[in-house]
Structure formats: C-alpha cells, structure tokens
Write a structure and sequence with these properties.
This is Type II toxin-antitoxin system HicB family antitoxin. The chain is α+β, with helices and mostly antiparallel strands. It contains 1 helix and 3 strands, in the order βββα. Helix content is 26%, strand content 26%. Strand 1 and strand 2 form a beta hairpin.
Length: 62
C-alpha cells in the first residue's frame, strides 16, 4: 500500500501531512523520522477510533 504525502523543511524540522488527511500534520527532525510519524498518523486516523476525521475524496461526474 502506498500513500501520497506533502512535506517540506522549515529550519531544523521536516513537516508534512498525508494527502488524504490534509488537516493532520506531523513533523520529524529528519525526513525518515517524518515518514515514520506519517505512518503512525495514518494508523491512528484510519483506525476509526478518532471521531470526526476529515478526508479528501474524489467525486466522478458524468
């Protein structure tokens, strides 16, 4: 399974969020730590235990 994410560096930290969940950001001191934190964030958000999680979806129009 692959997930797209958006990331950038600000001073000494890497910040990012999962494309599917743009309201939920995380950070890391290295890019690898950010990626690990994004994986943890995905598990938390997709588990169903956090109420009111907002997502991005695609709607097909005919």
């Amino acid at each position: 399974m692959k997930l797209k994410y958006v990331y950038w560096q600000e001073k000494n930290h890497w910040l990012g969020y999962l494309e599917e969940f743009p309201d939920y950001w995380t950070q890391g001191q290295t890019l690898e730590e950010l990626q690990d934190n994004l994986k943890d964030l995905y598990r938390d958000l997709s588990s169903g235990e956090i109420p009111g999680v907002r997502r991005i979806a695609e709607l097909e129009l005919s």
